[in-house]
What does this fold into?
Amino acid sequence: MVPTITAFESSPDRGRGLARDMRVRWALEEVGQPYNVRLVSFAAMKAPAHLALNPFGQIPTYEESDLALFESGAIVLHIAEGHAGLLPDDAAGRSRAIAWMFAALGTVEPPILERQIAVLLEHDKSWCAERLAAIDDRIRVRLGELSAHLGGADWLDGAFGAGDLMMVHVLQRLKPSGLLEAYPNLSAYVARAEARPAFRRAFATQLAVFTRSQTDG
Ligand code: GTB
It folds into this structure.
């Protein structure tokens, strides 16, 4: 059965691929699984039909037969477990790849999200510059650690996989900050992932949604 995912009807990121449906689209493209997209407005996300899929009223969600999932990490893991291509065949390699998914979401993403909140919602507060500097320090610590682990390798643990997909999507949100540029191997890592045909297809599809939402008014 072709799964259906949800995405913003009109994404606040203006088609830059930063909303979390992008991770799910990318995973589906990597494994060659066709999918449908149901676009939802902000109002629809908070209405009972969507809350039945995601109690927090957010995108993305994933529906396939009688399975409904929310949380981008759980959705990407479900896709990776059901298809070849995003997780290694051996049990230890699979566990390590899942550890990298958790690392992306639980260790690297939180200070990056805090930064975005500070920039978007707290920029007019007297303490914002100080807070931003403290957050940036925390981000630099994580980037330094990640950069040291990656070294000269192409991917985090052998072949490209679900851990890289999640990590790259998390790092992409740092682009406007300029923080990533101090770590050339991480910038190259992100660029390498963005050159993957599956990434490009997923990116183009979500961009087309935004472009259409602008022309349709
Ligand atoms: N932990 C959940 C997951 O990983 O799936 C978080 C899901 C989430 O935050 N979804 C956001 C959402 O639905 C969209 S992606 N927000 C609406 C709401 O909470 O009411 C977050 C996002 C939004 C905007 C940008 N942007 O403009 O750059 C980037 C990312």
Remarks:
- The first strand starts at residue 4 and ends at 8.
- Residues 91-121 form the longest helix (31 residues).
- The chain has two domains: 4-85+197-216, 91-194.
